[in-house]
Amino acid sequence: MYGLSDPLNPREVNAEVDIVFVHGLNGNRNTTWTTGDVFWPQDLLPADVPMARILTFGYDSSVAHFWSAASQNRIDGHASTLLADLAGLRDRTETNERPIILVAHSLGGIICADALILGDNSPEPHIRNASTHIRRIAFLGTPHQGSSKAKWADTGRAFLELFKSTNKENVKDLQDKSEKLSSLGRAFPNLLRRRTETGELNAKIEVVCFFEELPSKVIGMIVPEESACLPGYEALSIHADHSSMSKFANRTDPGYGRVSSVLARWSRELTTAPPPVTQPPLPDTEKPPPTVSLTTPEWASGNYLRTSKRHPFIKEVPSSRVRRTQ
């Protein structure tokens, strides 16, 4: 189940925004977002965000694709596929100007971050277009470890234990195999800052980071709060462990309420036209001088200068005001 899914909501033909779900390690585009028989991007979300076309994206999410000698090519490959699939769909459906919201669980957030970086540097106009229309990202348990290879290696060990990997090659030299993740951890905050500093209305990317409240069994916290949050951006908790934080059974689930509220608010913001810009009134010091009629008493009395007929831009002093000398 790789690539983009078909739209999950029946009214997507009238959509004004795209919401794309990207799963994390050992997940897929359906099971990551499903508990019991409730696939919440399809069963719950359309009623709360009716103006959205909802899609999920799938890729080969084995641990080795993030921590291995070939991780750079694999992560870049997944990110490039995400952008290409989005660009292709938007071109076919003539929705290239539609804003995009990404919802990423776990290391799916790494794929999203890499997609933005690759898109901003792509020579292909359709790829850059897809990237520049990504306006919002919700990270669910995505580690943001910056440029520290040691921290990324610790995260890798936690994931390997979570998924009970027995491959010794995966565990070996995790720090050296974290080069790509370290590079992304350094580049992504810089991209967010650049988008903000442009000052353009549609350039800035809003981010909300959700973090797990509960430890995973035996292992403990996989992505603790301090790792899941980006400085300067909103952070919200979900009362679940790392694997369960992306699964909601009904609308009464507090986690669903938090995530869906953010998505609904973002969708309204992105589809509502900004109010017209009005000029503030001029202060008194900048108001134009009053208009004076040639027939006013002030003019007759010589209190105002009059315009020369021969030189309309030269003011003459009324003769009654001129002191004659002998």
Question: In a few lines, what is going on in this structure?
Answer:
With 326 residues, the chain is of the alpha/beta class.
Describe this structure in words.
With 326 residues, the protein is α/β, with parallel strands linked by helices. The chain contains 11 helices and 11 strands. The strands form 3 sheets. Strands 1-5-2-6-7-8-9 form a 7-stranded mixed β-sheet, with helices on both faces. It has a two-stranded antiparallel ribbon with strand order 3-4. Helix 3 (71-92) packs across helix 4, helix 3 (71-92) packs across helix 5 and helix 4 packs across helix 8. It is globular. The protein starts with a strand and ends in a 10-residue tail after the last strand.
Largest sheet: 7 strands, mixed
Structural class: alpha/beta
State mean pLDDT (0 to 100 scale).
80
SSE string: EEEEHHEHEHHEHHHEHEHHEE
Strand portion, in percent?
Answer: 5-15%
The shape, in one word, is: globular
Number of strands: 11
Q: If strands are numbered along the chain, what order do they take across the biggest sheet? A: 1-5-2-6-7-8-9
Rg: 30 Å
State the end-to-end distance: 107 Å
How many H/I helices? Answer: 11
In helices, the fraction of residues equals 25-40%
